Amino acid sequence: MKKLQIAVLGSSKAICTQKAYKIAEKVGEELAKRDCIVITGGGLGVMEAALKGAKKEGGLTIGIIPWESIKKVNQYADVTIATGIGWSRDAINVNSCDGAIIVHGGAGTLNEATYGYIREKPLVAIKNSGGIAGDIAGKFLDVRKSTRIESAKDANDAVNKVLKIISKQSKTLCILSEFDRDLSHLEDKKDWEEIVRRAKKRLKAIKK
Asked: How do residues 25-83 score in pLDDT, each as one tens digit?
């Protein structure tokens, strides 16, 4: 079974607080305990802390860095992807994950969160970590309200929430795939009504 890839987005060393560092480290630990691959931007601060926590629990870690040299990644990355494209690599971080957890953060973190919002990725922000995470937790980023950034109280809560959202999305896609398959074998109106009824019932169960 494919492992989930979860990104931890947050402050660089320049603005990372001790509190944010500890929270991010705990996030990494909790993700590794659930056998998730942990992805960060590969720098210091929150990025380092999350990978450090994951390594404590024997997890696999990936650092996607903006620089050209793999030597610039932090010491806790098992795999380094040196993009050489500067901060445009934020898009790669988000595209490479099944969901993301936001800890503290500044303008760069907001950029990543915005890209995740546009891509409708599952996003969870730890409100009491402060920074951008505290500002956007529980909110939509624009009037389209496409994806709510869920609010979490701590690392464990954040991990539980992001994995739950991913699970719901996966089940929904499975139901829609089966719905399309059933439609391809549609023969009469009664079949159509039964197909729709069954799909609605299953989708309703997921929302609970």
From this structure: 999 999 999 999 999 999 999 999 999 999 999 999 999 999 999 999 999 999 999 99
Residue 146: its H or E element: none
Summarize pLDDT for 2-27 with one digit per residue, the tens.
899 999 999 999 999 999 999 999 99
Q: Are residues 24 and 115 in the same domain?
A: yes
Domain membership of residue 182 as a residue range: 167-207
Residues 44 and 108 in one domain: yes
Spacing of C-alpha 12 from chain mean position: 18
Q: Following DSSP, what letter does each residue of 107-127 receive, concatenated?
A: HHHHHHHHHHHHTT--EEEEG
Same domain for 83 and 179, yes or no, is no
| Contact of 129 with 151, CB cutoff 8 Å | no
Domain of residue 37, CATH code: 3.40.50.450
Q: How far apart are CA 50 and CA 157, in angstroms?
A: 15
Q: Which residues is 152 bridged to in the sheet?
A: 126
